[in-house]
Write a structure and sequence with these properties.
The complex is a heterodimer of chains A (164) and B (84).
Chain A: H1 10-16, H2 18-25, H3 27-31, E1 35-37, E2 44-50, E3 56-63, E4 73-77, H4 86-89, E5 95-96, E6 105-106, E7 108-109, E8 119-120, H5 126-130, H6 148-157
Antiparallel strand pairs in A: 1-2, 2-3, 3-4, 5-6, 7-8
Chain B: E1 3-10, E2 13-20, H1 25-35, E3 46-50, E4 53-54, E5 71-76
Parallel strand pairs in B: 1-5
Antiparallel strand pairs in B: 1-2, 3-4, 3-5
Classes of the chains: A alpha+beta (164), B mainly beta (84).
Chain lengths: 164, 84
Amino acid sequence: VRPSDPILDARVARRTFAEAEELYSNRATFASIAWSIAPPEFPELRVDRIGPTGQSLIGVVLHLRNYDFLPASVRYVKPNGEAYGWPELAPLVKSFPDPSGGLPRRRIVEATSTTGLPFLCLPGTYEYHAHIQHRRDRWDDHRGQISLQSVLFNAFDALALPGS
Amino acid sequence: MAKITINCVINGKTIVETAEDHAALQALIEDVLKDAKATARPAGDWTVRLDGAPLDHQKGLSAQGVAGGATLFFSLGGSESGAA
């Protein structure tokens, strides 16, 4: 199953897409934290992190074809909309201390088997819940709790952006 | 102690809350979660930010720079790591 496969009835998916439209309607508030929210076009919502000179530092696209039957699929994109591959994204990926004293950990993993693209490996994303390692952490246990706003914060938190 | 009004952005919506300026953030979070009907997860699971910086739940609002008219952003679920 790929995140773009039409599993959920399109009419239902368009109704749940209202969450993306609500973020857009509140875009002026999010502009205060340097987010630029593009007009949502079903089934995708794009949010860019804006740098000090007003340019996009990076974009995050949420693919919501089956949301919230399935979680949001997340991909990182360049200002021109092209998806980041791992070699280009890697320098922007933040490392977090391991609480148990091990090696620092990243929240973005090199490639998902479905697309070959780097992915955000956190609850609330399609790529996390579809991964064999996290099959027991079911989306059903997070649905209605981890909102698109939270997914976006988590997606940007996973990055160390220059000039941000 | 003075009452202040704070804009709390949670799940895409803005909720306006009134709080004592010296009250701990924790109390405000609990009020916001109730008003947003987002009580499935405890207050401690939420990250609350002012100007992008996470705030301490146990510290007072004014002690952390939260003044009247401030906007706080709520998020959930960013604590697990992916790969080493």
